[in-house]
Design brief:
The protein has 143 residues and is mainly α. The protein is 50% helix and 0% strand. The protein is built from ten helices and no strands. It comes from Polarella glacialis (Dinoflagellate).
């Protein structure tokens, strides 16, 4: 029931986990859920996990929501800006990822798209800040 689902996700966005596939594909209800609990993006339909508006709302509430966003959204500069609105000065071309990693946030590598996870420069900076970031590095070729 959409009315009941709306009440539930307004109270706790995590209620989306227990909703039907139809509710998980309802953009308005998913936006309500992720605005309350960004990580509820995990329970949204694949289509909505690829919807930039939904992902922006989720990322603004909780940056870890990027773990469940589509690869396209995980590579989108606007989405990354939503995760770190207080650091806009650093976001220029691909350099924004490197600057974020320099600011003691090595675990951002977990949320980065594959091109950053495969970049030796990005991986080294991430691991320098947080050894556990190595877990999220894609296999690198010896150079």
């Amino acid at each position: 029931d959409p009315t009941f689902a709306k009440m539930a996700v307004r109270k706790d966005g995590r209620a989306l986990e227990f909703a039907s596939a139809e509710i998980r594909a309802n953009k308005d209800l998913v936006i309500l859920a992720v605005a309350q609990c960004g990580t509820s993006l995990l329970f949204a339909s694949d289509e909505l996990r690829a919807d930039k508006e939904v992902v922006l709302k989720a990322a603004a509430q909780d940056a870890t929501a990027l773990l469940w966003a589509s690869e396209e959204n995980r590579a989108d500069r606007d989405v990354w800006l939503a995760c770190a609105p207080d650091r806009h000065a650093y976001w220029k071309d691909e350099e924004y990822v490197l600057k974020e990693l320099e600011q003691n946030e090595g675990t951002l590598l977990a949320m980065a798209n594959i091109k950053f996870q495969q970049d030796p420069d990005v991986v080294l900076r991430a691991v320098a800040q947080d050894f556990y970031a190595l877990e999220f590095a894609a296999k690198l070729q010896h150079q």
